[in-house]
Amino acid sequence: MPERIEPAFIEDEMEQSYIDYAVSVIRARAVPDVRDGLKPVQRRILYGFRELGLLPGKPPRKAARIVGEVMGKFHPHGDMAVYEAMVGLAQDFSTRYPLVDGQGNFGSVDGDEPAAMRYTEARLAPIAREFLDELDEETVDFLPNFDGSLEEPEVLPARFPHLLANGAWGISVGMTTQIPPHNLGELIAATLYVLDHPDATVDELLPLIPGPDFPTGGIIVGRDGIRAAYETGEGRLTLRARAFVEDERIVITEIPYQVRKSAIIENIAAKVKDGSLEGIADLRDESDREGLRVVIELKRGVDGHRILPRLLKLTPLERTFACHFLVIQDGGPRTLSLPEILKAFLSFRRTTVRRRTEHRLRVAQERAHLLTGFKLALENLDQVIEIIRSASEPAEAEALLAAEIGLSPKQADAVLKMRLSQLTKLERRKVEEELTELATKIGEYEAVLGDPGRLDALIRDELQEIARQYGDGRRTTIVESSEEVELAALDAPRLDVILCVTGKGYVNTTGCEAYRAQGRGGKGVIGIRPKEGDYLRTMVTAHTHQDLLVFTDRGRVFKLPLARLEPGDRDSVGKNLRQFLEMGLDEEIRAVLPVDGYDGGYALLATREGIVNRNALSDYANAHTKGILAHSIPDEDRLVDVAITHGGGQMVLATAGGHVIRFPEEQVRVTRRPSKGVIGIRLAAGDRVVGMVWLPPAETEKRLLFVTEMGQGKRVELSDLPLQGRGGRGVIGIKLDGHGGPLVTAILVAEDDEVALSTAGGKVIRFPAAQVSTFSRYARGVRLIQVEPEDRVVSAVVV
């Protein structure tokens, strides 16, 4: 045969070959599919686990056996490539929701390498079932493997948007994909919103899915990068470690995603050695099974708040995460926005559920067809037996059953294969019952296939069940860049201040030394100069390195770094909090609470109608200047008071009519924000709750100070207030008459505390709590402040 030679330019040949190679790498190696969110090697690993029967609850097998299965049958690209991909799916610090349950050394956040595959074992994690359970129901297409000897799924029938849940990372030829992980509960909430609103915008989705949620926690500074990534598929996020100053040390408890802890420690040590970081005496890693903890000991007299900003600036404690939402869609690479990714998943899920339903319908119809034949044969049992006995061969019997009984070839074949035990009355009843069940299922399947709304409802129910089963709390805190305490502010010394907040939202920040103590019964001094028609709502003491949680009567909460409020004169008008917070004009501030951090503790909330609620303080870590809902409050009710607690204490609710109730805090179960709460006190007609006090565990020395609208008050021993069950009517706490007016509030005071009373006119009087006499619950009390006829007391705080 003559040789066939075709001339070609080497430039053209190299160009085409490179393009073919690039397309192969993009599609078959590095970029995830938008439908199941998996790269080919990850998909083949999960399928390999299934083929080996390594399902959740089954005994694990050696990783080397799994790698051999995957490499030999589906992915011939080297054992280490397969093993590294499997390790990534098992690491809880790399994957937000691990798909592989690994046993043995699978590496660490320090950057330690995993043990060799001959030493480790693995099986599928429970959530991996959501990729594999529907494979046998013709939900996806199968393709030949690399040598044509087997088949593998083109894509797995994922039941949730895994692409965004666990994110993805990969480098291909000329392209990079880097998709951050997200919180599953938030992600499914956004997916359900897109299910109902196909034209949903990023602005509509952001309240539901505020941003990525990394497995290592940490902080995302600024929302502009999140918005850009969600709108265009490209964006840059600033990730920051979670660190705080504790006495004369700085403690790091969470680090940025994809940063090795050892790299952070080595970098800090190097900066100390070359003189870039001063004031650090020691550095040690105290991490254990309970969590990550790196302690930086400071030299004596060094202010940690001055060192922390430089640590963030000079070390990997702060890094940039570049988002590239590059995926494979319709066979090619595409950069998609958040709504486009969710719509692509829903389109795939609709197709998957439709194919699954068609398969189930076909199976049910085939089974019903056979059972109908059984039923017909049982109804003509004598004739069937005679036909079978007289037939010379099975084919003749089959033909006679079809001709004389009316059975189809499939029914006749099934009847011929029936066991004698199936001729009993019990078996006949079972056939009829199964036919009835199948008729119901067939009707349901046909309804789903005939009604897109029914199909979407089925998808909704399944997504909600996945969120309930696998959802967890957010780990990463997101703060507005404008909210974040600027480095210059952090570098400034800590200042103790008093915050005066008016009913209309004006806040005045003043150094504590600006207030002078006065005796009980005096005229008081002006603490803020309210505008006409305004009055002082609350006073709190704080320091400039804290956050403020601002709660309104509508049940919303806002977060504001106190460093953004510049100290001013004691009697100035101050600035309106609406300059910093997106509060409604009809919202009134009910509580302003300074917090140092959000790890541990609870928020106790009480409403005017006696409803109480308890949330983990961590639920408020993602509060921001736009506000989040703290409590689901009916239109006729209003939030009255909020307290930060540490658990194990007691609650005291006080009403305008002078009644109080005291009960254990634990009687209010912890719920996720927002929730409706439970009854704390049952009110008499016309009464309302005016205040709430939290009593720490074993609190016996302090007393309750009651203050009325016209300035009367008294102290009461805690032992005089009986411990009751939540939801009762309480007892008398102070006897009221026409001169003192209704009760304004009740606060907890120690013998050496000072109290500041505030009036609607903006006057403040400060006096030792010990000057107020202690009376029984039934006494009226004494005058605490001289109130002008047109004025009234509105608040009392411990200074």
From TrEMBL:
One of its GO terms (cellular component) is DNA topoisomerase type II (double strand cut, ATP-hydrolyzing) complex. NCBIfam families: gyrA, PRK05560.1, PRK05561.1. The active site is at residue 119. The lineage of its organism: Bacteria, Candidatus Bipolaricaulota, Candidatus Bipolaricaulia, Candidatus Bipolaricaulales, Candidatus Bipolaricaulaceae. This is DNA topoisomerase (ATP-hydrolyzing). Its EC number is 5.6.2.2. It comes from Candidatus Bipolaricaulis anaerobius. SUPFAM superfamilies: GyrA/ParC C-terminal domain-like (SSF101904), Type II DNA topoisomerase (SSF56719). InterPro entries: GyrA/parC_rep, Gyrase/topoIV_suA_C, Topo_IIA-like_dom_sf, Topo_IIA_A/C_ab, Topo_IIA_A_a_sf, Topo_IIA_dom_A, Type_II_DNA_Topoisomerases.
